[in-house]
Amino acid sequence: MSLLSSLLLLIVFARLFGRLFARYNQPELIGEILAGVLLGPAVLHLIEPNLALAGITELAVFLIILNAGLEMRFSDIFDAMKGRGMVLAAISFIVPFGGGVVVAAIYDLDVMRMIFLGLCISITALPVAVKLMDSMGILHTPIAKFALATAIVNDVAALFILGIVLNLPEELVFNDAVGAVGVATLKLIGLAVFVLAINKLLEWFEKRNYNVQALPETMIRIFGPEALFGIVIVFVLTFGTISEALGFHFVIGAFFGALFLDKRHFLASRYEDLQGTLSSVTNGFLAPVFFAYLGLELQLNSLSEVDFPIVVILVSVVTKMLAGWWGGRIVGMGTREAIGLGCVLNGRGVMELVVAGIAYQKGFIGPTMFSTLVLMGIITTFLTPLFFKQTYPGRLLEDYRERNRS
Predict the structure, then answer these.
(1) Positive or negative CA dihedral for 257, 260, 266, 268?
(2) Could you name the CATH architecture of 62-289+309-405?
(3) Which residues contact 287 (CB under 8 A, 6 or more apart)?
(4) What are the structural domain ranges in the chain?
(5) Which of residues 379 and 355 earns the better pLDDT score?
(6) Residue 269: what pLDDT?
(7) Which backbone phi and psi does 228 adopt, to 5 degrees?
(8) In principle, which of 206, 239, 257, 338 could form an S-S bond with 333, CB 3.0–4.6 Å?
(9) What are the start-end ranges of the E strands in 343-390?
(10) What pLDDT, in 10s, does the model give residues 347-366?
(11) Which sign, positive or negative, has the C-alpha torsion 316, 61, 370, 383?
């Protein structure tokens, strides 16, 4: 099937299934994932995952992250990473990673597969968390602030370890291991310094009452009002490219780049136009394709043993929920709010599939492990909104939103 025909089917089925679930007060992304499962190798075999569709889903991830960054402030995320927030992030990474190590040890897996299983279980998918919380109207609540900060730290930690593993030679010696750790650490420090330097520069401009709006307005006068969207895309793409050049996934840099695009940097009317354009492209077209593609990745014929996937999924859900609740209580959340945080952190999706895909391509894991990790990503993404709805049903969710608006 051609790329355009595949896209047509994915969009139509994803939108139909998404609206069907929304009609019964469930997040649309569940229906969108199921549409991909139905159309893909798991059921009807109408569409196969391929590089062309994967490229479109990368664009979707980029725009989902950009949309989230426009809704939030850098200071909110940075504050959530400080003090107890970093403890929350550490717990939500270490506990699930430890669960993965235990499962790997029980099934006598080698060290490399043990590492990748732990990494994939410990990741929280930033785009999934963003889309879920945006659809529920809680993107400005403490749950969102801590969840997104934790997701960033978790993903950076996972990609940091991944970078070390990929740079290790086949014949491992101590000096080579130390060198790989040192290089990865320097790259991480470089990314952090760059992000903080840009933030300090913007703060310096604001303290001296420089008109930051003047630059985008000048660009618009030169290139026309429709150029605003392109200017923003180029700005955020620059951050994503720098992040990727340092060995991290582009989504990490893109999110920080989007956070710098504060409302104060645009005229109010321009900012509203930008949000409207971005929301139409993302929510109306690319986001459904992305979540449907997650469903396409599921290949049931590689799952010859039933017990291993079940154990992996159970451990991934329990450890992430436990870590989120425990960490949430540490940062001062109430019991229900902490459980809600654990629910949000449980979604994996894109970043987990990135790590699993790299491991599979490099030969570190086989088809059974890869299919297990894909199934885990789909099911945990599927369960995340259902669990959150159980934690904050109906009126309770509305009350929670109202409290955080005031």
Answers:
(1) positive
(2) Up-down Bundle (1.20)
(3) 29, 32, 60, 63, 64, 131
(4) 62-289+309-405
(5) 379
(6) 64
(7) -60, -45
(8) 338
(9) none
(10) 876 667 767 777 776 778 88
(11) positive
